[in-house]
TrEMBL record:
It holds the Pfam family Ion_trans_2. Gene3D superfamilies: 1.10.287.70. Residues 97-155, 191-269 form the Potassium channel domain. InterPro entries: 2pore_dom_K_chnl, 2pore_dom_K_chnl_TASK, 2pore_dom_K_chnl_TWIK, 2pore_dom_K_chnl_TWIK1, K_chnl_dom. The chain crosses the membrane at residues 21-44, 134-157, 178-202, 214-233, 245-266. It comes from the Eukaryota. GO terms for cellular component: apical plasma membrane; dendrite; perikaryon; recycling endosome; synaptic membrane. It is found in: Apical cell membrane; Cell membrane; Cell projection, Dendrite; Cytoplasmic vesicle. Residues 323-349 are annotated as: Disordered. This is Potassium channel subfamily K member. Its main location: membrane.
Length: 349
């Protein structure tokens, strides 16, 4: 008896706090994902870091042994100054650093700042530049997000909503299945267009990069991670890259257009009915009920395609609010019961 009461209480508790429990599991799963990733990175990279440290120590000691006129303290001072300048985008390796802050390079810098990519290889040197960077980003990043949102929504109509609606009417296929197929095809196409093909181009243009490094740069850049360990156009001489300004400008355009395309793909995948149903598991009850109505509207959207205005032949598509109100009314209305006459007729038959 006690066990049955306990089981019943557990069942009621699970049903009442279903979304909260799912959200707690999501938080725990995400923390475990972070911990597992940190452990894997540490296991992979720590031996390489140790070997590199030993190599640098050996190279430094070898230099001191071959150049006895240089003291360890003076070498330490020179290396510290060189590393500090390198962190500000100025190298002592003999390359032409005059183009770090020309117009095209500054345009590349502003695009990486406003899109929050931030490679970190070029940073403001003066206090005035740092102050202006704060002011510029404070207004520029929200404007950039607003701009990207508007552009993505317009592109979504052309590359996602209209094709899905067209093939839905043409093939009479379920809209949810058709949306999943379209999202898969769009993801594959954008992967080829934005990652594979540009990586092959960078392999031919950057003499020190292999395919994996080029693919790594494209992915890190378009996802706005921007680690800055690989930056195109950082050559050591003008002869190896005579059109550096045009090269930088082309990369800037590629990053901006690529970011828009990536956002389109992400928005297309997030708007799938399957993804909406998955998100409902982690919403609060009032939000989950509203989103459930919206999902039902999406699943029944093909019914609205068949409604036409007989006066002018223009399709009449009910608004989301009208359909939601209709769904609420249907849920509140009593179930249909056949009339007594109908039951009598069935008995006669």
């Amino acid at each position: 008896m006690v066990r049955s009461c306990t089981d019943g209480w557990c069942a009621r508790f699970m049903e009442r706090h279903y979304s909260a429990l799912n959200f707690a599991l999501l938080v725990v799963g995400y923390i475990l994902y972070l911990i597992i990733g940190a452990g894997i990175f540490s296991a992979i990279e720590l031996p390489y870091e140790h070997d590199l440290r030993q190599e640098l120590k050996a190279a430094r000691q070898d230099f001191l042994n071959n150049n006895t006129c240089v003291s360890d303290a003076r070498l330490e001072e020179l290396l510290a100054r060189a590393l500090e300048a390198s962190n500000y985008g100025v190298s002592v390796l003999g390359n032409d650093t005059d183009r770090n802050w020309d117009f095209v390079s500054s345009l590349f810098f502003t695009s990486t700042v406003l899109t929050t990519t931030g490679y970190g290889h070029t940073v403001p040197l003066s206090d005035e530049g740092k102050a202006f960077c704060i002011f510029y980003s404070l207004f520029g990043i929200p404007v950039t997000l607003f701009f990207l949102s508007a552009v993505v929504q317009r592109i979504m109509v052309l590359v996602t909503q209209r094709p899905v609606s067209y093939f839905h009417r043409r093939w009479a296929m379920s809209r949810s299945k058709l949306a999943a197929i379209h999202a898969t095809c769009l993801t594959i196409f954008m992967t080829l267009l934005l990652l594979i093909i540009p990586a092959l181009v960078f392999v031919s243009l950057e003499k020190d990069w292999n395919f994996l490094e080029s693919l790594y740069f494209c992915f890190i850049s378009l996802t706005t991670i921007g680690l800055g360990d690989y930056v195109p156009g950082e050559t050591h001489s003008k002869e190896s890259n005579p059109h550096s300004q045009l090269y930088r400008l082309t990369i800037t355009i590629y990053l901006l257009l690529g970011l828009v395309c990536v956002l389109v793909v992400l928005e297309t995948c997030c708007e799938l009915p399957q993804m909406r149903r998955l998100r409902q598991r982690f919403y609060q009850e009032n939000v989950r009920e509203l989103d459930s109505e919206t999902t039902n509207i999406i699943d029944r959207e093909h019914m609205s395609d068949q409604l036409t205005d007989l006066s002018d032949g223009v399709p009449v598509i009910p608004s989301v609010s009208e359909q939601a109100a209709s769904l609420r009314q249907d849920s509140k209305s009593p179930p249909y019961t056949p009339a007594s006459g109908s039951a009598a007729n069935r008995k006669l038959r």
